[in-house]
Design a protein that fits this description.
The structure holds two protein chains of two kinds. Chain A is mostly helical. Chain A is built from nine helices and no strands. Helices cover about 75% and strands about 0% of the residues of chain A. Chain A is globular, with a radius of gyration of 22 Å. Classes of the chains: A mainly alpha, B mainly alpha.
């Protein structure tokens, strides 16, 4: 088993992390969706490998679930939302060198702090090796978080979320015995989120800065707010429908 | 001594073979495999012009850089896996520092030429090299962690006798990162290309003002650098097997090294003919990727025991 871990499980986990870096570096939405598919497929393959090593059928069911739901269904739903006429849809100004270095700093500090403070004391079932293997899901989780934080497009943020869920599944795989019912609920959760998000993608493709608030100091902002309230009271009903006024009123 | 002579006299041959094979794949006749020798001989016979505003560094650094690469060839296992004259004087990090020293000298000389083009090339190299040097040192750290030593000969011996260690995470990703660095340092196609030099030139900017004998030495130095980096990649990272240290088996090292180089040339040609050249500012992304891999998996390997 140890040799199998050395030869297969660690490298596959590493490739999952590399796929996360690949996602981080991509500008094009379609490439990100394909990257997410590869990551999920690798996760499914890892589940089969662990299932084979442990002779546990639960892992095979999990692997099938991952491949069908994540690698296929989620990818299919996301791809359908990439507009056909905009096949080169992409997010501008993705500074790969900068994001990689910040990502590296975040991962190294966060993961190792958490690992050494919390997870180091967890002892796994002996077959899977030491608790150090938790570093892979932790790293993947923080990469998903960083992807969401560093991007503006809704697509990238959904994929970041799916990556986080992949991290949770990876984490659960290394914790034996596997709670399959929880895994199934995580999958349904992701599926529901992707369905909901694919509608959000149509409504709001990217999350830009709120231009109206840029450059306002706190005092100035409050003055604007009180002014808009007063204005709202004095204006006729039809002219109150301005989005800024509605937002200020809420 | 045979190792040193091999590096000095046969390093241009590998550049020639590479150019010939690449041309054949591109359906061109291509230059002779001895073309780098012809070029060097031709340049040695030509007049050397020294720019008016240049200084002493411009004139003497090519000799110093040649000396530095000669020293490196007497430190690292590039042909016969037996420690040679200066092996005890430096380890892997020492070798990395010597590579950096040679790069620094060449950049200083280029700046000393007083040419704007050379200054542009130097500024490009400096803005990229901070990641390349970091990755190079991290890669050597990674190899040191596997073998618990920083001696390149011990590392080579350890890796060639322990097969499983070649498949450890840190070794795989160190190999990958070092290969990426090899492509960068030797100016291969995803990073640099021939033609339109002012648009994509990085290393070629350093030789802009050189001519005659000094340019010949600089070219020769580049061939040596390519051979040294490639041989370190082959003998320490990629295929550490097949070299012998005892008489008369060590005579087999020459053809074995030649075959290893053919493998490396084949891989590089496949990459060069399939990938497009990156835009200049994407080089930083490429190097950041190499640096990230080397650092992340170095730390992983330290934690995962």
């Amino acid at each position: 088993m140890n040799a199998l871990i050395e030869v297969l499980i660690y490298p596959i986990s590493s490739f999952i992390l590399i796929s996360a870096f690949y996602l981080q570096a991509q500008e094009f939405v379609r490439s990100m969706v394909i990257g997410q598919m590869i990551q999920s497929a690798l996760l499914g393959f890892l589940s089969f490998v662990i299932g084979f090593a442990e002779s546990d059928y639960d892992f095979f069911i999990l692997g099938v679930l991952i491949v069908v739901l994540r690698a296929f269904l989620v990818t299919y739903m996301l791809e359908r939302r990439v507009p056909r006429e905009k096949i080169h849809l992409h997010e501008k100004k993705v500074d790969v060198a900068f994001t990689f270095l910040v990502n590296l700093i975040l991962v190294v500090t966060a993961v190792f702090l958490i690992y050494f403070l919390i997870f180091r004391s967890i002892h796994l079932v002996p077959d899977i090796g030491s608790s150090t293997i938790f570093i892979f899901p932790l790293t993947l989780f923080f990469q998903g978080l960083f992807l969401i934080a560093s991007r503006k497009t809704t697509f990238a943020q959904i994929i970041g979320y799916v990556e986080e869920e992949n991290a949770l599944v990876l984490f659960a795989m290394f914790l034996l015995p596997i709670p399959l019912i929880i895994e199934a609920s995580v999958f349904l959760d992701v599926l529901a989120l992707v369905v909901v998000s694919s509608i959000v993608v149509i409504e709001k493709f990217a999350h830009e800065k709120m231009e109206d608030l840029v450059g306002l100091s706190h005092r100035h902002f409050l003055r604007c707010l009180s002014f808009s309230f007063r204005l709202r009271r004095t204006l006729p009903i039809a002219s109150r429908e301005s989005p800024l006024l509605l937002w200020a009123g809420d | 001594m045979s190792q040193y002579l091999f590096v000095v006299f046969l390093s241009p041959l590998f550049t020639g073979i590479f150019s010939k094979f690449k041309s054949r794949i591109e359906s061109k006749k291509g230059p002779s495999i001895f073309q780098p020798y012809y070029d060097i001989f031709k340049l040695f016979r030509k007049e050397t012009l020294i720019p008016e505003g240049s200084g002493i560094l411009f004139r003497y650094v090519p000799y110093a850089a040649f000396g530095v690469y000669s020293l490196i060839s007497l430190i690292v296992p590039v042909l016969i896996p037996v420690p040679v004259f200066f092996t005890a004087s430096a380890d892997f990090l020492g070798g990395a520092i010597l590579f950096s020293l040679a790069a620094f000298l060449k950049m200083s000389a280029a700046m000393n030429s007083g040419s704007n083009f050379s200054a542009m090339g130097t500024s490009r190299i400096i803005s990229f090299n901070f990641l390349a040097e970091g990755a190079l040192i991290t890669v050597f750290f990674g190899v040191s962690l596997i073998t618990a030593t920083n001696n390149p000969y011990t590392t080579h011996s350890f890796l060639s006798t322990n097969l499983l260690q070649n498949f450890s995470l840190v070794h795989i990703f160190s190999t990958l990162a070092f290969f990426m660095l090899f492509l960068y340092e030797t100016g291969k196609i995803p990073l640099q290309s021939e033609g339109l030099p002012e648009l994509g030139m990085i290393d070629s900017g350093l030789n802009f003002e050189y001519s005659g004998k000094l340019l010949a030495i600089n070219r020769w130095t580049s061939h040596m650098k390519q051979y040294l980096l490639g041989s370190i990649f082959l003998n320490v990272f990629f295929v550490p097997w097949g070299l012998f240290s005892t008489y008369p088996l060590f005579l087999l090292d020459f053809p074995v090294m030649f075959l290893k180089w053919m493998l490396l040339i084949f891989i590089v040609i496949v990459i060069e003919t399939t990938l497009a050249k990156l835009r200049l500012f994407k080089v930083l992304d490429y190097l950041a990727t190499a640096f990230t891999f080397s650092v992340l998996f170095l730390i992983f390997s330290e934690v995962i025991v």
